[in-house]
Specification:
It contains 9 helices and 14 strands. The chain is of the alpha+beta class and about 325 residues long. The chain folds into 3 domains: about 80 residues; about 100 residues, Thrombin, subunit H; about 80 residues, Trypsin-like serine proteases (Thrombin, subunit H). Strands 5-4-1-2-3-7-6 form a 7-stranded antiparallel beta sheet. Strands 9-8-12-13-14-11-10 form a 7-stranded antiparallel beta sheet. A hairpin with a 3-residue loop joins strand 2 and strand 3. It is globular. It starts with a helix and ends in a 6-residue tail after the last helix. The relative contact order is 0.12.
């Protein structure tokens, strides 16, 4: 098939978080049969993938070859599957753009809040978000699979049950903190931390959460995210700090509207990828309101079962708080 610039841009947005490192990009370039010496890679993954895909699009079958290789490594990535089936995901579109010649009543015009709620936040908003990001880690399993997680009090790591389903898998996994880059694009020195399920482990398959102790002093070094009952409703905005595709730590806070809240589930439009499972979902005040766990064509638990929506979904943090409290009261450890 032929790929226009719009399709290539969509593919770039899919592939850049999956393969942010130059070494990974060069491997795919070679495996797809492209000459890496003809492609100018950049410190920015987005720029590099723009170069790679533009180069590949001028050579028959090479974009398809890249998608095929990526699908072999990420077979459950719905966005890649749709791209491979010539059904690239459609972007969410805003209102139509029109030619504006200026207001007729310019003298009486005043600035306005556009929308139902103000999007203005203090400059400290960014600093607080970065502080919260310290407590977010990548989970790497013995199988090589990855997820995301975050620290809460008592040196306890929170993630999904489908990431760490039992003490055995937790004992063979590690949490990787500071897997990110500086402003200059230089890798921060990451730290691997052992999980200690013999000290404490609890999980719920129904609500898809797991909690496990980590090595002492983790809270002293990376802080913690407080767990409090959530106040979140449809129309709110939520941000997610995550390790999409097992790559560098990233934040998602564009197109981040909450679409549904009910039956201990929160559905939203905030972007994630495989590997983001176990990420904290924050409200605009950086309170944790949900534990991200799934995405795709989802049904609303209390809605019409015939209707599905392309959304992401988290477990309302209240479910995690309640289950964790019960486990601690029971003195559960390693079970």
């Amino acid at each position: 098939m032929g790929y226009d610039q719009s399709s290539l841009t969509k593919l770039r947005k899919i592939l850049a978080p999956l393969y942010p490192r130059e070494a990974e990009q060069r491997r795919l370039i070679r495996d797809a049969g492209l000459d890496e010496t003809l492609i100018a890679l950049d410190r920015s993954a987005a720029n590099s993938w723009s170069e790679i895909l533009n180069h590949a699009s001028r050579r028959p079958g090479k974009v398809e070859a890249i998608i095929k290789l990526a699908l072999e490594e990420h077979p459950e990535n719905e966005l890649l599957l749709r791209a491979g089936e010539d059904r690239p995901p459609e972007p969410l579109l805003g209102d139509a753009i029109f030619a504006w010649a200026g207001p007729r009543n310019a003298g009486a015009l005043h600035e306005k809040i556009i929308g139902e709620a103000s999007a203005l936040v203090p400059t400290s908003y960014l600093a607080l978000g970065l502080k919260c990001a310290r407590a977010v880690a990548k989970v790497r399993l013995a199988s090589g699979n990855v997820g995301s997680a975050f620290l809460t009090g008592e040196n306890t790591l929170i993630t999904n049950h489908h990431v760490l389903p039992d003490p055995s898998s937790a004992a063979r996994a590690v949490a990787v903190f500071d897997f990110e880059q500086t402003l200059e694009g230089v890798d921060v020195k990451a730290t691997e931390v052992r999980l200690l399920p013999d000290r404490f482990f609890a999980a719920s398959e129904e609500d898809d959460w797991a909690a496990v102790s980590v090595e002492e002093h983790a809270n002293d070094r990376w802080g913690k995210l407080a767990l409090r009952p959530a106040s979140v409703k449809a129309g709110d905005r939520v941000n997610i700090i995550q390790h999409p595709g097992g790559g560098y730590k990233q934040m998602s806070f564009f197109a981040n509207t909450v679409a549904f809240v009910g039956q201990r589930r929160v559905q939203y439009l905030t972007d994630t990828l495989p590997g983001s499972s176990g990420s904290p979902v924050f409200d605009r005040s950086w309170n944790v309101v949900a534990l991200h766990h799934a995405g795709g064509w989802l049904r609303e638990p209390s809605g019409d079962p015939k209707h599905a929506y392309l959304r992401n979904e988290g477990i309302l943090i209240d479910a995690v708080i309640d289950g964790l409290a019960r486990a601690r009261r029971a003195g559960r450890g390693g079970a």
